[in-house]
């Protein structure tokens, strides 16, 4: 509690509050006619979480890192025959991917930790239900929201290429392109010296005509 000297004149707080009220009353009110008129939201509003099912590898990172434990995943394994392989391989097949939005606090941790970009923010917000028990949405509903996910921003032309683009460029150039480019750069770059001078000649070797660091003999 502040001292008596810091309180100011009596009734100052009431006057400040009434001033804010009068200032608000003089402004024109803005009423959005929702749901007759849809609101104009920013293109990357965080409304609900969408699922790109084909990218999910059932790694369970999103379910383990969720602080509310509102993600429920179930899967099974199936064998995939690879031509030329000694034996068949196994892969996870997603059976169930549910998010209970009555528990979700929209922290976005599940989206950040997903290593294969299977979860995305979407500006969709009209998914309310009459019962809280109906806020458990399955993978079909989550996948349907992917159509509202905005495309990623364009890559900066002055920035460094992404890891995927650099890998594709190396593959397109061929297997020996990187080695040849590295060898050419080594040939073009002279070896550094301590004082910025050309390297000293070995004993018994012919003198370097470009070496001007020696003093002329008397």
Mean pLDDT: 81
Which range does the strand content fall in? Answer: 5-15%
Q: Name the helix and strand elements from N-terminus to C-terminus, one letter apiece.
A: HEHEEHEEHHH
The tally of helices reads 6
Distance between termini? 93 Å
How many E-type strands? Answer: 5
- Spatial strand arrangement across the major sheet: 2-3-5
Low-confidence stretches: none
Shape summary: elongated
Major β-sheet annotation: 3 strands, antiparallel
> What is the SS-derived class?
alpha+beta
| Rg, Å, rounded | 33 Å
Helix content: 10-25%
Sum this structure up briefly.
The protein is of the alpha+beta class and 218 residues long. The chain has six helices and five strands; from the N terminus they run H-E-H-E-E-H-E-E-H-H-H.
List the helices and strands and how they pair.
Elements: H1 12-25, E1 48-51, H2 61-65, E2 71-80, E3 89-100, H3 109-113, E4 119-122, E5 136-137, H4 139-144, H5 163-173, H6 177-188
Antiparallel strand pairs: 1-4, 2-3, 3-5
Report what the structure shows.
It is elongated, with a radius of gyration of 33 Å. The protein has six helices and five strands; from the N terminus they run H-E-H-E-E-H-E-E-H-H-H. A hairpin with an 8-residue loop joins strand 2 and strand 3. The mean pLDDT is 81. The chain has helices spanning 12-25, 61-65, 109-113, 139-144, 163-173, 177-188, and strands at 48-51, 71-80, 89-100, 119-122, 136-137. The termini are far apart.
